[in-house]
Structures are given as C-alpha cells and as structure tokens.
Specification:
mainly alpha, two-stranded antiparallel ribbon
Length: 176
C-alpha cells in the first residue's frame, strides 16, 4: 500500500506542477495581451480559479503530509514523555485523517450531484462544474490514504513502546 500511495502522490505532484506552469503561462499571456493589445484574455480568472489553483492545493496535500511539512506545534510534544507524545501525535493524526476523509466524502457527493444535475458555470466560459469539483475528492482521497499510513505507523509506535526508531520513509525503501 505504501508504494501505491507513493506512486499516486508522485502522479498528483506531476499534475500540481503542470498546474503551476499553466498558471504562469496563462497569467503571462494575459499580461502580454493587456500590455500589447490593451485587452485581457477572456475567462482567465475562471480558468485559474476553477482548474489551475485547485490541483495545486488539493493534489499537494498528501505530499506535504508525507514530508511532514504541514503546520504543527512540536515544541510542546517534545517536552513530554515519549509515550505521551506518541499518543498525542496519534490522536492528532486520527482526527486529521477523519476530517480529511469527511471532506473527501462531502466533495465526492458535491461532484456527483453536480454531474447528475449537469450544474454549469455561467461565466464567460460555460463548463460543467463537476470537472472542477472532481479535483477535490481525488486529492483528498490520496491525502486520506497518506494519513492512514501515518495512523498505522504511529499506532505501531504506541504498541511497541520500546522502539525509539520511527518507521523508515517510503522514499528510502523505494531507492534500494
């Protein structure tokens, strides 16, 4: 499962990177049009808001969690006994996992409803909203899977309190 989640994260990271590149290109093209032709490209804001920013945010969540770069307060936990700190981290991971899973479920329902009702965005560019909404459950699913791996690892560290070692990161295992 670790390798599958790692590969899914890498796949989504590729699309998040493409999202950044596309955003830069669209903004540069719009600025060029404004400067040279004194007009803007139609639907630039809709394209950026509906398709380019969402993958950047929701596809990057799992990778950020894997590298432990999400905002957290460690200085309090570090002052506690190891077992207590592990339990607090486990509770935090469990609550975060449940929250992200709930968001994923709700975003899936939103996407499905938009698909079934053929909800459309009526701006300069008309498109079905499920295309935009569908980005959320995909990213949140992989994010939830990453939290599930962390949940398991932390549970094993609580069950085996003599282990001072943290589980080996997946990137280290894959490079062998």
């Amino acid at each position: 499962m670790r390798k599958l989640v790692y590969n899914l994260e890498q796949f989504l990271a590729f699309f998040a990177g493409l999202s950044i590149l596309a955003t830069i290109c669209v903004v540069m093209a719009d600025a060029l049009f404004r400067h040279v032709l004194h007009t803007t490209l139609p639907s630039v804001n809709e394209i950026i808001e509906s398709f380019l920013i969402l993958p950047l945010v929701f596809f990057g969540g799992a990778i950020t969690q894997r590298s432990k770069k999400h905002l957290s307060v460690h200085f309090i936990v570090e002052k506690l006994p190891v077992t207590v700190g592990r339990i607090i981290e486990f509770i935090s991971t469990t609550l975060s996992m449940l929250f992200v899973a709930l968001l994923g479920y709700l975003s899936f329902r939103l996407t499905l409803e938009a698909f079934e009702t053929n909800e459309l965005n009526y701006g300069q560019l008309v498109f079905p909203m499920y295309l935009s909404y569908g980005i959320l459950p995909v990213g949140l699913l992989v994010f939830t899977l990453r939290y599930m791996i962390d949940f398991y690892d932390q549970l094993m560290m609580i069950i085996n309190p003599n282990s001072e070692e943290k589980p080996e990161p997946i990137a280290d295992k894959l490079s062998m």
